[in-house]
Every structure is written in C-alpha cells, then in structure tokens.
Amino acid sequence: MTDQTAGTAPAGLSPDEARRADAAHTGPMLAADGTPLKKSLARALRRQKLRALALIAPLLIFVLVTFVVPIGDMLLRSVQNGIVADTLPETVETLSDWDHDGTALPGDDVWTAFYIDMWFAVERKEHTRLGTRLNYELTGMSSMFRKTGRQVDRFDTDVYGEQFVALDPSWGQPQSWAAMLDGPAADALPLTARTWERWKDFNAEEGDKVLEEDIPDFLFTALYHDLTHGAEVEGVSDRLSAAKAAAAEFEPVDLSAQFADADEDLGNIDVWKTLQLYSPRVTSGYFANSVDMQLTPDGIEARPENQQIYGILFKRTLFMSLVITGSCILLAYPVAWLLSNLPMRTANLLMILVLLPFWTSLLVRTSAWKVMLQQQGVINDVLVWLGLVADDARLTMINNQFGTIVAMTHILLPFMILPMYSVMSTIPPSYLRAAKSLGATNWTAFWRVYFPQSVPGIGAGSILVFILAIGYYITPEIVGGNTGTFISNRIAYHISSSLNWGLAAALGTILLAVVLVLYWAYDKIVGIDNVKLG
Amino acid sequence: MTNRATLLASAALVATAGMASAESHMASDMTLVSWGGAYQNSQQKAYVEPYQANNPGVNVVWDESSAEAVAKLRAMNEADNITWDLVDVVAADAIRLCDEGLAMEIDFDEMLADGDDGSKASDDFGDMLVSDCYIPQIVYSTTFGYRTDMVPEGADAPDEICDVFDLETYPGKRALEKRPINNMEWALLCDGVAKEEVYDVLATPEGQDKALAKLDTIKDQVIWWSAGADTPQLLADGEIFMGSTYNGRLYSVIEEQNQPVAMMWDAQVFDLDGWIIPTGLSEERLARVMDFVKFATDTQRLADQAKYISYGPARASSAPKVPEDMKMHMPTDPANAGNTFLYNYEFWADYRDDIDAKFQAWLAQ
C-alpha cells in the first residue's frame, strides 16, 4: 500500500508526506462495509489473536495454575513474614516505639499487649507456630512460646475483674460492656475497644454469643490499662469516671513478673529485640540467612564463621555442575559421532544402549555406582586382585566429590548425547570428504569443518546438563558424603525437616537467579540462536 | 414430576441402606501413613488385619510417606485438602506437628482403651506421652552394631560407646547419622562430660565446639548415613566396622540375614514412634479413625506387634505379653538397657536449627 501511494505521489514529496497528502485528498480508505479499512483490519487481526488465544487457553491456564502460580507463591515466601504481625498485632504495634538500643525491657503497654495477644494466640493454637518461626532466628523461642502458652490463662489478672465488679456489679455484665463500647467510650478507651472487637470475632468463630460469655480477665486488664494511662473519660459516663478514680487505687498485677515466672527467657532483652526485628510483614532475613549473613538491629552482618555454609555450598554446586558438564561433553562427543556415522543397524543398537540406562530408575543407577565404587566394591576388588592397590589401602571413591561426579556424569550423559546426535546427524559426510580431497589432514578436516558445525549440539547439551545438574538432589544425597552434597540437599532439608520454608524459598530464588544470569551470559557469549536441539 | 419421584425414592433407598449399617456414621476407607518395610508390615499384621476381621468392609490404604510427613501435612493443610487419616511419625515430628496445629489434640483417657490391668490409658503410657497430640506405639533405640569378624586380634569386642571414638584399638570406618542429634551427645559423653550434664554443656557454644572437636577426631573415618537402611547395608558389605542405626534394622541383619554382626547396646538412645491424627478430618472419617486407634493401641495389639519386629510396646501393660523369644532383642530389656539415653525432645526442639547449622557447616569444611 505504501509503495502504491508512494508511486502515485507527486515528485518532491517523501512517501510518508505523500500518503498524508493522499489521505487528505480522498479521505480514509474504506472497506466493503463502509468502515475505514484500518479499523476493519485491526478488528480482524484482533479476532484472529483472540481465536489463537482461545485455542492455547487450556494449555496456558494449565501452565499458570500448575506451574507459575505455585512457584511464584513459593518464591514469595522468601520475604513473607506476616505471621508475627498476624499472631501478635497489639505487641507489634506497641513494640515499634520501643528503643532497642537501651538496656531496659519494654514497658507496661507492651506487656499488656503481649498478654492479650498471647491469650488469643493460645486459644487459636497459633503461639507454638510462631515459636517455631522465631526459633529459626533465636534459639529457645520455640519452648518459650510453648511454656508461656501453658501459663497465660493462669495469670493473677483475675484480681482486676474482682476489683471492678466489687466497685460496680454491672462491670460483670457483658451487656453493659457492649453498650459502653458502642458509644463514645470506645474513643476514650482505645485498647479496650480493640480488644472487645477481637473478643467478639473470637466468639463468632467459636459459634458462641458474646453476650452470654463472662467478661474474660484480659478485657479487665485492657480496661485497667486504658484507665490508668490517661483515658479521657470526663463526661462519657459516671460509671467510667468512678472506675477511673478507683483504678488508681487498685491492687496492680505486674505482668512482666507473671511472664518471667512463666518463662525466664521473656526477661531476656534479645527476645524482644528479635520480636521487634521480625515484626514487619516483609523481611530480608531469609535472604540474609541464605548468604551466610544475619539480620541484627544494627543492620545486616556476617554470621560467625562456624555457621557459614551456604556460600560453600553454592560455590561447590556451581563448580561440580561445571565439571559434570565438562566430563559429559568429553564422553558424549565420540558416542554421538559414532551414532551418526555408523551404519543404521549398528547405530540403532548403540542408540538402545544409550537409552537403556535413561529408562532405568535413577535410584537403581545411583545405588549401582555405590556397589561399583565402594571400598569393598567391584572396582576396588579388581584393583586389589590385579595387585595395583594394597588390600589395606583401598581407594575411597564414593561418599565424596569424586563419587558424585562419576555417578552424575553417568546419569546425565544421555541428555548430552541426544542433542549432539541430532545435530551431528544433519552434517553431511560429504563435507569431510570434500575437505580431505582439498588436502586437509584428518585433524584439520575435523577441527575446521566438522567441529564448528557440531557446536550447536554441544551448546544445547551443555545447557540441559548444567541446569539439570545444578538442581540435582537424589544422587548427591546418596553418594555425596559430606564433600559432595549440593545446595539442593540443604533446600530439601529446609523443606522437609526443619520446615523453614522461607529460607528454602530464598535459597531457591538465589539458585534460580544464578541460572538465569548464567543463561544470559551464555546468550551473550555463545548466542542462544546457536543452540539446536534437532 | 416423575424425576422428582425417582429422586425421592432413591433418597429414601439411600437412607434405609444407611440405617441398615450400624456404622453409617463412619467412613469405610482409611489412609494410613507409615514407613514401609518390615515396620509397616508389623503394623499391618498386628493392627490392621485383626481390625478388618472385626470390621469387614473397611478398606485400608497405606502410604509410605512418614519420612516426609511433616512437610506433606503442612502442604495438605495449606491446600485445605487432607487426604491422610492416621499418620505414623517419630516423637520429634509429632511435637512439631502439634506446635504447627496440624495434629489433633488427644484426650488420652477418653479416646484410648484402658490397659487390660485396669489402668487408665494416661497412666499406662505414662512418661511416653511426650506431646498432647501423640499416641505412642513403640519404643525403639538408635544404637551401634559392629562386625564380629573385624574385631582386631587380641582386642575385646567393643562394648562401650567410647570404643566408637577409639581408632587405635578399633580401626576401620564407622557409620553415623548425618545430623547432630545423638552424635553430639555421644561425643560429649566420650569427652568426659557426665551423663547428667550433657544437655547443659551442649546448650553452650563452647560445649557444641567441644562435641564437634571430639567428632573431628574420627571425621575422616565416618560414612554419614541418612536412611535407616544404610548402616545395615554397609555392615553387610563389610564397608564399615561399626555403625549406628535403629535396633530393629540390626535385628534383621543379625537374626534374619545371619550376618556376623553384633549389637553394642551401650548408650543407646530411646525414641518413640506413634500415631498422630491430622486436624480437619470430616466427622465420618474421624469417627472411623478414632475407632481404629482405640483398637490398634490397646494392650494386646501393642504386644502383638512385638511378635513381628524387635521394638518394645509403649504401654506398660503390654510388656508382660511380649513373646519370650523376642524379649532379649528389645531395647528395653534389662540386659540391654544398662546405660541408656532418652531423646531430649524439648532440648532439640529449641537447639535443632542452631546446632544443625553448625554441624552441617562443620561437615562441609
């Protein structure tokens, strides 16, 4: 169209200007039904795209639901930390003002908030879960929450209720509380009002009616706290004014002492520092842990040397994956060459030999290597029989890096052979013959003519093998010993044993990022267009 | 109209059919989770087969997932789709599941059968009740086995835990579990720490370093195992001189495979294995599971299990009923239980993450 309009344009105008001039002259080009052609075309294209989308929709939805969403959800866990704020909302709120640099434990308001939060957490059996979470950061939190949970409803706070009721029996009636906190008193008594709402929600969850339940101790505690901390109750109600005047004379309960009785660790300032540090809903703590650092109130710092492990493991995983990829290339190249150059019958037989182990269970193949490589195993026995190795100096070839590399090279070899074979089988043998007929030696013909054409196969195989190797888990677990384990073994440990899914997610995210960066680097250096799977 | 009539009629039919069965409120399918192998087999024979004989029509499916039970239950709970009815786990895992709110709390006296000597379930199980959610079945121990044919000439057979650390008298490889639990205790014990003080010492960073330093003396002679079947295999192959594993595994190496292996019971660590019921089961399924658990953990059933595997029953009232020829293989037999440890659940619940990080860092160096 552009060419046409350009063709009819007056001389001296650029094609673009000509088209504009043309359009101004004749108006927009119209389709058969009278709509502008441009619009009609766009609509047709859109319809086509939608149809294509509808056709791939099942696959797209499948991939989204079973792949992208779960993995995304798992990766998000590496920063999520809502559990502290969800379990201890009031504590987190009041603790944000506490000065962690000082040597003083948090004040009265934090203890009151913690008492109320713990009561709800214990009733919902959430406190031990929080204890497990915080135990990853500070040893001892797990049993601290468990012990404190057992004591919380046995605190001496019932004296508040007795004193309020002695002052005015109506304090014992839930109706009077409901009426009071429906009115202006709610603004004057913020903690009491919030706690009352939680108490109502809690009863709704349990299927109980709040107006039929006795007023719990912690509500009296909240009321006492509000009244003794400058609540403006003048003119709200006479009952409240009287209560405020009397509360100043009430026998108080020292909550910090009650908690210290339940578990002495609560008197440890580190516990509160940790709680404050992990209050936010989003934390960098997991990522810090996964690079051998730790979050402290003063920022991120390195862990003590005897706890650093992830750096070693990441480096080892990368190094060993590279060695495995390299040894796969060395072993696979001649096999792929044979496969693509032998007569069909022999090549097929060879192909079956390549595929047979591929179809055998991974566990069987790994265990077979154990039998082969162990000190009383086949290879050592043969070496001793041949007299190459003394009986009391048998070689250690398993439960170390060597064993892992051997077993994984064997297991991943087909992933290298197959793409190499499919590339090599497309290289016409006549090229080599032509090179030789022009005077090249065998080596030159191979290195200058054949090898460059087989590089895309090496590239594809290397990417496959390297990415599979870097996330390998079962083989290093079985034959890795202590020097041959990978980062994925630690990830598996955190998923299934320590239940520290946040840390596992952070380690997984880093591993994914490393793979993506390497892929990018590979694309820059070799070029991803140079990869051919067939 | 006809549609509605058929609907009503079939509804009535279903209702009568339901009433005909006395147990209409109980589900007829049950998924039990266990460890597979000889252990699961003993449960099948001692618990499930007699139960099915009493309740024909109950269908039991086994899932061999106990090793990953905690993680899988957490995932099921997050997906709000619990497919397991009863899960066999070790005590440490049960405590974690209970902490996470993934296991149901048990009212022991209410839900479990009394002992046949008339004692209440909570008294009959006694100290074995280490968590509110956990119904113990058996006591097993982690202990050492050694090759009798590899004992050096002139030396006595190893009979105390510190022989593990004595490379001079007993050269050869050892197999230890690839985790700090048990190994750290043994190391401290052989580094001169008194048994009562082991956990006080292990709670301090200096104590942890001390234990690792002791383990360092044998580090290059150790093969680290992570599956219970590893040590028996390594012993049978002659790869190691001695190794730790579960006593039932050693029993089958010695008694069933007739390998030249013997037990060294010194400083064995007792642990429990038992049931938890996942939270969030439907009423029918829960009713069935409760019925089964009450049957499967009574005095006779726990004693019966000892016929098939050398683990001691968790009920005191079951002990006299254990077959005579199995008694000598039980970890709790007085001849074997001269010097024992009990897995310190509370300590390891707190220190597991911390000490494991140090242990693994030490291993990787």
Automatic annotation (TrEMBL), chain A:
Stretches that traverse the bilayer: 52-72, 318-339, 346-364, 402-423, 455-474, 501-522
Region (Disordered): 1-31
Transport as UniProt keyword: yes
GO biological process, one term: transmembrane transport
Cross-referenced PANTHER family: ABC TRANSPORTER PERMEASE PROTEIN, INNER MEMBRANE ABC TRANSPORTER PERMEASE PROTEIN YDCU-RELATED-RELATED
Family assignment from sequence similarity: Belongs to the binding-protein-dependent transport system permease family. CysTW subfamily.
Protein name: ABC transmembrane type-1 domain-containing protein
UniProtKB/TrEMBL annotation, chain B:
Keyword terms of this UniProt record: Signal
InterPro entries: SBP (IPR006059)
Signal peptide (residue range): 1-22
Pfam family, one: SBP_bac_8
Top-rank lineage group of the source organism: Bacteria
Coiled-coil residues: none
Protein name per UniProt: Spermidine/putrescine ABC transporter substrate-binding protein
Organism: Primorskyibacter flagellatus
